[in-house]
Structure formats: structure tokens, C-alpha cells
Amino acid sequence: MKKFICVADIGPLDAAVKEALEVKANKFGYTELGRNKTLLMLFFNSSLRTRLSTQKAAMNLGMNVMVLDVNQGAWKLETERGVIMDGDKAEHLLEAIPVMASYCDIIGVRAFAGLTDKKADYEEQVISQFLNYAGCPVFSMEAATRHPLQSFADLITIEEFKTVERPKVVMTWAPHPKALPQAVPNSFAEWMNATDYDFVITHPEGYELDPSFVGSAHVEYDQKKAFEGAHFIYAKNWSAYADPNYGKVLSTDKTWTVDAEKMALTDNAFFMHCLPVRRNMIVTDEVIESERSIVIPEAANREISAQTVLKKMLETL
Ligand code: AN0
Ligand code: CP
Asked: Which residues line ligand 2 (CB under 6 A)?
């Protein structure tokens, strides 16, 4: 595998999940694969899980790991071509990418949507430059429009916890004080649409996602109706996608917070969230602390999704 940006890059999902579960059962069975191979992880944005789980995954494979926080200790990088660089950015990505690639074998990049220029975000202006100029395998650690390592971990988690063949999975918008990207919900929708699950998205009016990600999902504006009979509730906030409100917070309506009363409408559903989560905005203390909350095993599976992706990349080096 030369790139991991979207669901299509991993191939058939049943085979990918099978491989992930094999990796999980035998994390240290592939330590020779990464010997003398170096992973560079590049962060334009903060991270807890992605940083630690991906580093751990690479170490499980015997790799060496370098982590660079752009904007903290490195030169600030210009990402747009043609800009007169008389501001605070000392270096251009077009030099930085081949230089960084010369020191490593695989590059992981985290570069969130800026949420001001929809076209630039949805063209994946930053990660596509890595794909074009790195000359080595590149994977997304959350780019402008998708977070595939998260969605892969989510899928593994659902496969582990499901008790019916085709579970009803409901992705619900929930309130948050700050504008967040659409990457996590886009990506979750993309992966769920690639399964045969019954997949439903619920959100207030104005929070419609890019139709190409919504795909064949059923959109239900009545959150309580959406929750009826659900086996998994996947909560997430996102900012508006539709013009003229792209990147804006349209509502912080706490009647959308996931609470015990709404969970009672489900078929004893598991509660999921990618984390970090703001308690009593997105979800109540009671629900996230309940025995049906699987946010911790979900986060633990980030190590497994990352190790599976790195393994597949190392196998093609
Ligand atoms: C980010 C987001 O919503 O895309 C990262 C989630 C994995 N969340 C925040 O910035 C709070
Ligand atoms: N879920 C996730 O990607 O978390 P971090 O932002 O902490 O990496």
C-alpha cells in the first residue's frame, strides 16, 4: 500500500478487518518487518491518540520513529504555491517535503481543514502535496476531509462488539462550542457506506454533510426517531459544510446532547466517540461512564488500525 487517505486505499473491508484482528492477536509477530525503517509523523495540529497510537504501532513493527510538530520548534511552513513569502512562514512545503522524505521511509501527516476556504480544504491541498512530492508511502493522520485511521478503528470496534450481523449504526451530531472539521463524520460515513450495516445520520437542519460522503445513508432530522432500535450511537460534532455557512457553528443546542433518556430509545446501543470529547456538551457523564460506553476500547483500536496500515505499507517497500 502506497497511500492511505480514504476507504478505497485499504481494499476490501472484510479482509482489512480480518488482518487487523490478526495483528491484534499477534502485535509482536512482525518486528522484523520494520527493522531499519523509519516513520516520520508530521503534525500541523494537536493530537493525543493519533500521536501515541501510531508511534506505538510503528514500535510494535520494529520501526524507528521521528515526530515533528510543525509550528512548534520547526520552521512555519507555507502550503500554497505562488505566495510572496514575506510573512511568518520561513519555509515552503515544496522544499520541506523532499527534505523530510530523504530521512524516512513512510510519512504520516496530520493537517486539519482550515475551515475558511472550502475549495482548498476539499481539494486536500496539504496532504495531496505530500502524495505528489514525497516519493514514499504517505498516510493520513486526519487530513482536511477524512480521518481514515479513526474510521478503520471504529469499524474494527463495531465488528468486535456487534451482536447482530447487520447492526443499525447511528451517527449523531452533538453540540460543541468551537468550529470543528467535517473530517471525522465524512470519513465515518464513507466507511459505514462501504459496509452492509443499516447506517443513519442525524443532525439539525443546516448541518448537511457533503452529499458524496452521505452517499446512500439515511438522513433523519429527528434525533429521537433516529435513535430508535440503534445498536451503536456514534456521536460527533462538526461545523456546517453547506454555503454560505461553511466552517461555522450554527447551533450549540444542548437538546442534541446524548443523554441516558435518548440512549433508552435504542436497542441497548453501545456509545462511541473518537475522542477528545467535551462532557455534558456532546455526551453526559452518565452515558460516557456507562457500561455501554466503548470509547476506551475504540481508542485502543487506534493502535491496531495504525499497525495494520503500517504493516501493509512496509510490505510494499
Ligand atoms: C478534531 C476534529 O473534530 O476533527 C480531532 C478529532 C479526532 N477535534 C477537535 O479538534 C476537538
Ligand atoms: N481521535 C483522535 O484522532 O484523537 P487525537 O486528536 O487525540 O489524535
From this structure: 47-50, 142, 150, 274-276
Ligand 1 proximity of 183 Cβ (cutoff 6 Å) = yes
Q: Which residues of the chain have pLDDT under 70?
A: none
Q: Of 51, 180, 302, which is best to mutate to test ligand 1, by the most ligand atoms within 8 angstroms of its C-beta? A: 180
Distance CA 69, CA 110 (A): 10
The pLDDT, as a whole number, for residue 198 is 98
Residue 293, all three cell numbers: 460506553
The residues near 37 (Cβ < 8 Å, ≥ 6 apart) are 62, 63, 64, 105, 106, 314, 317
Report the distance separating Cα 72 and Cα 43, nearest Å.
10
For residue 55, what is its C-alpha cell? 508511534
Indicate if ligand 1 lies below 6 Å from the C-beta of 113. Answer: no
Number of C-beta neighbours around residue 74 at 10 A: 15
pLDDT of residue 271: 99
- Tell me how many degrees the CA angle 125-179-304 measures, rounded to the nearest 5: 65
Residue 267 exposure: Cα atoms within 13 Å on the Cβ side: 12
Percentage helix, strand, coil for the chain under 3-state DSSP, each rounded to 5: 35, 15, 45
Strand pairing report for 106-110 and 91-92:
unpaired
pLDDT at residue 74, rounded to an integer: 87
Distance (Å, whole) CA 43 – CA 69: 5
Cα of 98 from ligand 2 centre, angstroms = 27
